[in-house]
Amino acid sequence: MEDIIVSVLFRTLVAGTPLLLATVGEVICERSGILNLGVEGVMAVGAVVAFMVTYNTGHPWVGVLAALIVGMIFSLIHSFASVTLQANQVVSGLALTMLGLGLSGMLGKPYVGKPLSIKMQNWEFPFLSDIPFVGEILFKQSPFFYLAVFLAFGAWFLLERTRLGIQIRSTGENPRATETQGINVSMVRHLCVIIGGGFSALAGAHLSISYSKSWIEGMTAGRGWIAIALTIFALWNPGRAIWASFLFGFIFVLQYLLQPLGISPNFLAILPYAATLIILLIISLKDHRKLNAPAMLAEPYKRGER
Amino acid sequence: MKKIQRLEMVDISKSFHGIPANKNINLHVESGEVLGLLGENGAGKTTLMNILYGLYQPDSGDIRINGKNIRIHNPLESISHGIGMVHQHFMLVQNHSVIENIALGYKDTPFFFPKVSIRKKVEAFSKEFNFSIDFEKKIWQLSAGEQQRVEIIKALLNGADVLILDEPTSVLTPQEIAELFSILEAMKKNGHMIIFISHKLDEITQICDRVTVLKKGEIVGHADTSDTDKKALARMMVGRDVIFNINKEKIERGKKVLTVDRVNILGDKGNMAVKDISFSLYRNEIFGIAGVAGNGQRELAETITGIREAESGEILISDKDITNKSPRHIYDEGVSHVPEERIRFGIAPGLHLYDNAILKQHHLDKFSKRMFIRYPRVKDHAKALVKDFKVAAHTINTEIKNLSGGNIQKLILGRETSDQPALLVASHPTYGLDVGATEYLRKQLLDLRRQGSAILLFSEDLEEIFELCDRVAVIFDGEFTGILDADDPRLCDIGMLMAGTKRIDIQDTP
Ligand SMILES: Nc1ncnc2c1ncn2[C@@H]1O[C@H](COP(=O)(O)OP(=O)(O)OP(=O)(O)O)[C@@H](O)[C@H]1O
Ligand SMILES: [Mg+2]
Question: What is the C-alpha radius of gyration for chain B, rounded to an integer number of angstroms?
Fold first, then answer.
């Protein structure tokens, strides 16, 4: 029994890792007022780039770095459309997702069925991993897990405890007021979209070179969309994103666990979205101001207008 | 020695969608000088200052600092040139705390832990300004007057060489205005230059050295304040004589309209903002509530109009209970509302002027039939309002946010009074209006009173209170410290009543 619990919790953290990475990125992006529905696409691109580079160089960390850079560059498409051109962010984000999925399918074709010789190894912390139960679960994870948690705290610190954080949040709340304080609103937004893209790409890299070790087309499997739901579920707070992501990770694991009992996996697949709706409902009923949604989310900002 | 000795704007022109807002404007300010900008609503004062601050780009013309041409592309550049601005429409992030709003633009905010590190400095500075406020409060929890103070603090903290103040005093109390002026005087001595926009002519003559008057986007006159007076300025601005002191006639008050009975209201922070307040209001009567902003006025106004719930107590309109009913229901009982924050609560900024002309009235038979709006009627109504209230708008098809601040206010007033309400709840109704429009509006309120409406007037402008009201209540910390007839000699202690240091036993004749 204890074995099962350990294994379930271990896999919960594994499943939650890419969700956490992508969610934190989206939180930063949305806090600046830009809705990026391209997470799924950037994730797919990050996954394929990480895989290709790791496959060809044999160095997983080089793969990670490559995915990060390409993900950032790729999300420039969205920031150019939504910040520079002030286009509709929903349209541009969807375009990014479609483009990203298509690209990753195309680039990944030659690699289908070829396993990596060296994948990203899990870290085993000496001594700590010997702690019964906790050590098994917490200290034998993929480096991505520790990176994700570290970055989530970092993002929280950035948003809540730094000047740039105030600038980012103000940009999402009231870009005009922010501009009058001498802040370059476009620059802040570009920056946040790019950072968000980097996070998504890392999430993708986790899937392709740590979680699995061979290339499967469409391996992001809707995780990008869950991250967008999670952003709302976590009420745009990177700290809350941590436990929320692992909660959703648990639901993921539950799918496999409950399937043999005759509960349809389709039913469980809707759980993340249903949970998001429910939490929105509860909070809105209590006090809608606690919702925290950036006031100008998805509103293009045009300078020199009222 | 200040960086900027002389600032010039040369031949500045700017138009929006082909309609000129500024035409060939020339002005200059020198170090140690306060320049006043006067002009009717929509004359183009804010536009001109936004150009100087880099928010708008001029179509033509130059800005010169110390004789050298410069271009200002955005506020970042104007700030680095030493220009600071208090904006007419508050540039505050509603969901952020006061300290976060200040940290956003303060030049000495450090990268790490900005809030804690600047706190001491900001607190010390605010003390000088006699500005006491909870820095952790969110902006949306503040009254308009408090928000205005935050705006001013923000601008003063950076100690700009050139300070632009666009109607900085519209919702401040006389006390606060005096404090602001002493700071401005000190800055002036230090060689700062100040551009001051206000519709209050007394302020202009008091603080400014020179005045420039704008009309319909053009300069129509200059004057030294030492050899001009209020009357002359008003004439220059409006083009006719303006009557400053209107005499209200004596009218016997009629039946009771509004009864407020032991009402308690929670504020946004969970504190009791209004404590056990009772009063009644009659037909043909203007009842003023004077007090420093943030003493429960907003909560009381919101509760009477149905935006906020009362914890306990009763509110009756002509003996019908309207406590905690919906705003729509209350409106249908004849209660109109001119809110204190007009952009947030008075209009839907992105909608057309004509849509805004019938907010809250769209369901009335005259404007709609079943599910459909009768647009021809709506537009006729909007046209009539624009004409009657002299709203300067080129067409009723424009988005209302494109109107100047004062003109938005005129439209709201027109809308709220057009239906001859039983009760009009007006918060700072003349705030931001030019002298001509203020005169018109006050007459309008007195007309309503004559025709039988009851008016509940919230204002920090004591002159306005004394001029219009039949009875005056003074509110402090959610309680009335006195309800007096307007001619009661005890009202000369109104300052002490407002500060809560004195109380006069309340005898509200039922
Ligand atoms: N961004 C904009 N888009 C369209 N029209 C505008 C814009 N800004 C200003 N205007 C128009 O320019 C004119 C001048 O407006 P401005 O705000 O400068 O007036 P103002 O003198 O500041 O008036 P008030 O005393 O009411 O504040 C108005 O007719 C206004 O409708
Ligand atoms: Mg203005």
Answer: 23
